[in-house]
Design goal:
Blueprint (H helix, E strand, L loop, with lengths): L4 E6 L10 H20 L3 E8 L4 H10 L3 H19 L5 E4 L3 H17 L3 E10 L4 E2 L5 E4 L26 E5 L7 E10 L5 H15 L3 H13 L4 E2 L1 E2 L16 E2 L1 H4 L3 H12 L5 H6 L4 E6 L5 H18 L16 E3 L14 H5 L4 H9 L8 E3 L1 H31 L11 H22 L3 H22 L1 H7 L1 H21 L5 H10 L33 H16 L10 H5 L3 E11 L7 E6 L4 E6 L7 H4 L3 E5 L5 E3 L2 E3 L2 E2 L1 E3 L6 E3 L14
Parallel strand pairs: 1-2, 1-12, 2-3, 13-14
Antiparallel strand pairs: 4-5, 4-8, 6-7, 8-9, 10-11, 15-16, 15-18, 16-17, 18-21, 19-20, 22-23
Helix pairs in contact: 2-3, 4-8, 4-10, 5-6, 6-10, 12-13, 13-15, 13-17, 14-15, 14-17, 15-17, 16-17, 17-18
């Protein structure tokens, strides 16, 4: 296989919290395994990451802690960088978006677009705090929900009842900064015309998919955005913290984090160029025609890396001589949950990476996560599974095979690689399998089927154990020393191959195995060959994995019990008579469409059998309009009509929250139930 020049990025983690296991399974461990494999393959590879350090959540954290945003980002950047290092991430650089080189890079893109006349300036209405003299982002405004009366609703959304509304409808709005009542005030922002690039983006994604095979979940997400139609998107905000808008006379405006954060990949590579005193290094990768760019992300970042970032690069390439490459593939993973529930910082549900690594070695976690990556659907981390994979696979299969082989080599062959003699059928079959596995695993990794690749790695260890058992060296050591020597020779060479191919997943263990063999790693493609030479001295064996006792895992599970029993919210009781006032009826959705100027609302036409009605529902982030046609649902039929975005809504559709952030699932009714029937 020809050697490749490869640029790899992992999504920039937000510097407002600690890295947890869910983050690792999405954008980081899969990328690190891929990068380590490519390096072993002899490819020219650069792996870029860093902290995303701007945006409203950071300023809110700083306000709560009464510190500066810089103190917040410094704390989490350093903590996450350290945790990544302990976990074994092999970044070429872990940068940050607060550096001057990033600000300069992002501003250069904005200025280029502004000078070309690409950006559109538009006026909008936004809450303004007259006391502190600043416009307030949504999270800085709190008031009473006009639907359910929740007194902690945001300016345009109530998290308690899920309602969406115009900011002007929020009752008793208060600024979370000053406590004063804000006013709605006109402001202006610069918008990027994303819709202008829709046809080109669609063509680009179709071509990349045809050539390189994109994942279905990524393609479906992109198609959903295209079906809705891409719209102008604001790239500035009224904030102090962030990359300043580089225009004279424009004060207190920064570049929206969704626009500038993705440019952090480029600025981080520039920083690496400076560190290595190679000024043009970043251009070789970002503007090299032969470079292959792979962007690893979690599914919540798909739109930014398949649509928005490519559109930004297209806009730059249209007007500049130096052209940027676009991602060849964006292998997004789904979410990893924790013991059946979504990771939740506020509820203390989950475990941070640094905390985990204080309890267990990194390789145990890397293997467990890699063997259960959420590549096509959400998966879970369970403490019991972690124990099972450590004890039953790493210790009993891989560790046992290594230990028993070394024990025989030292006892019967003076701690040296014995001679390989005449091969039996069992030996030839093992050698054929040994030679074929590295290529099989490589093909899986190249197609981002990393979970399957890890399974095949362990299959080689399983095969080694079976070969050892079937060859019976404890018998041949007494009756046929030459055959015993052949068995141990092949087993040691199998261990060598395991030491190489497992390096991307459990790098610390790989180092130990090769040290025990007194050998150096070879290129991936050669690892299945017989590398060890007859008479080569091997070192004493180490215990690679220590089994985890039940009481250790039970201690971790017991820590979760108070959190599991902790109520998410207090529930106000109502009487049966109050409940009877609700009229819940079966309806069929007969038409659906997006509400203009809202990314959360859908306008629905429903049939109740005796009448048809119009509803407005905040489910646009969970369903495409065409997915809803024909579904039977439950609605609150006697809810007082209200207007949302100027559209009358005659009722409310019932839905439940899902583990996925911001997503809901409507309550569907069996097709056999008649329209208009009342739920009891």
């Amino acid at each position: 296989m020809a050697k490749e020049k490869v640029l790899v990025t992992s999504a920039l983690p937000y510097a407002n919290g600690n890295i947890h296991l869910g983050h690792l399974s999405g954008a980081y461990l899969p990328a690190d395994i891929y990068v380590r494999y490519k390096r072993l393959n002899g490819d020219d590879i650069l792996y870029i990451c860093g902290s995303d350090e701007h945006g409203v959540p950071i300023t809110i954290t700083a306000d709560k802690e009464k510190v500066t945003p810089k103190e917040v980002i410094d704390r989490f950047h350093n903590a996450n960088k350290s945790a990544f290092e302990k976990f074994g991430m092999s970044f070429d650089i872990y940068s940050r978006t607060s550096l001057p080189i990033h600000h300069e890079t992002a501003q250069s893109f904005f200025k280029s677009f502004y000078d070309q006349g690409i950006l559109v300036e538009k006026k909008t209405m936004q809450f303004y705090d007259e006391k502190v003299k600043m416009f307030l982002p949504d999270r800085y405004v709190e008031g009473t929900c006009p639907r359910c009366g929740n007194e902690e609703a945001r300016s345009d959304e109530c998290e308690k009842c899920g309602s969406l509304y115009d900011p002007s409808e929020l009752k008793n709005p208060k600024s979370k900064i000053s406590g004063e009542t804000p006013v709605l005030k006109e402001t202006s922002h610069y918008f990027f015309p994303l819709g202008k690039y829709q046809d080109r983006l669609k063509k680009y994604i179709d071509e990349m998919n045809e050539k390189y095979g994109w994942k279905d979940n990524v393609l479906n997400y992109c198609r959903g955005w295209f079906n809705d139609g891409l719209k102008d998107r604001a790239i500035t905000r009224d904030l102090d913290w962030g990359v300043k808008v580089p225009l004279d006379g424009v004060d207190n405006k920064v570049l929206y984090v969704w626009f500038e954060a993705v440019l952090g990949y480029i600025s981080a590579t520039k920083e690496l160029s400076h560190q290595r005193s190679e000024p043009d290094l970043w251009k070789e990768y970002w503007q090299g025609k032969d470079t292959k760019y792979i962007a690893f992300i979690g599914k919540d970042n798909v739109v930014f890396h398949t649509i928005i970032f490519p559109a930004i690069l297209m806009a730059w390439n249209d007007a500049n001589k130096d052209k940027f490459i676009l991602p060849q593939n964006v292998p997004a993973n789904e979410f990893l949950n924790f013991e059946g529930k979504k990771f939740s910082k506020s509820r203390g549900w989950g475990i941070d990476l640094d905390e985990f690594l204080q309890l267990f070695p990194a390789d145990l976690l890397r293997y467990t996560l890699a063997a259960n990556l959420p590549e096509n659907k959400d998966t879970d981390f369970f403490w019991k599974e972690f124990q099972s994979r450590t004890n039953g696979e790493l210790a009993d299969i891989l560790g046992n095979f290594v230990n028993r082989t070394f024990t025989f080599a030292h006892k019967h062959f003076d701690g040296k690689v014995p001679e390989r003699n005449k091969l039996q059928k069992i030996d030839e079959e093992m050698l054929d399998y040994l030679k074929s596995q590295p290529q099989k695993i490589a093909d899986l990794i190249e197609r981002f089927k990393i979970k399957d690749a890890v399974f095949e790695m362990m299959n080689l260890a399983r095969a080694g154990n079976k070969y050892f058992n079937d060859s019976e060296p404890w018998v041949t050591s007494k009756r046929n020393k030459e055959q015993c020597a052949t068995t141990i020779n092949i087993c040691l060479n199998t261990i060598y191959t395991l030491g190489v191919i497992f390096e991307p997943v459990i790098p610390n263990t790989s180092v130990k195995i090769l040290k025990m063999l007194n050998a150096r790693p070879t290129e991936w493609s050669k690892s299945g060959n017989s590398i060890l030479h007859q008479g080569q001295k091997i070192n004493e064996a180490e215990i690679l994995f220590t089994k985890i006792e039940d009481k250790v895992i039970e201690e971790q599970i017991n820590k979760l019990e108070p959190m599991a029993d902790k109520p998410i919210e207090s529930i106000e009781e109502i009487t049966i008579d109050e409940f009877k006032r609700l009229k819940l009826k079966v309806a069929k959705i007969i038409a659906a469409e997006n509400v203009k100027k809202s990314d959360k609302l859908l306008k629905l036409q429903i049939d109740l059998g005796s009448e048809q009605r119009q509803l407005v529902a905040g489910i646009a982030k969970s369903y495409k309009p065409e997915e809803l046609i024909g579904k039977k649902v439950l609605i609150v039929a006697n809810l007082k009509a209200a207007k949302l975005f100027g559209i009358e809504s005659q009722g409310m559709i019932l839905a439940v929250d899902t583990p996925e952030e911001g997503k809901v699932k409507i309550i569907e009714i069996d097709e056999a139930i008649e329209l208009g029937k009342t739920a009891k």
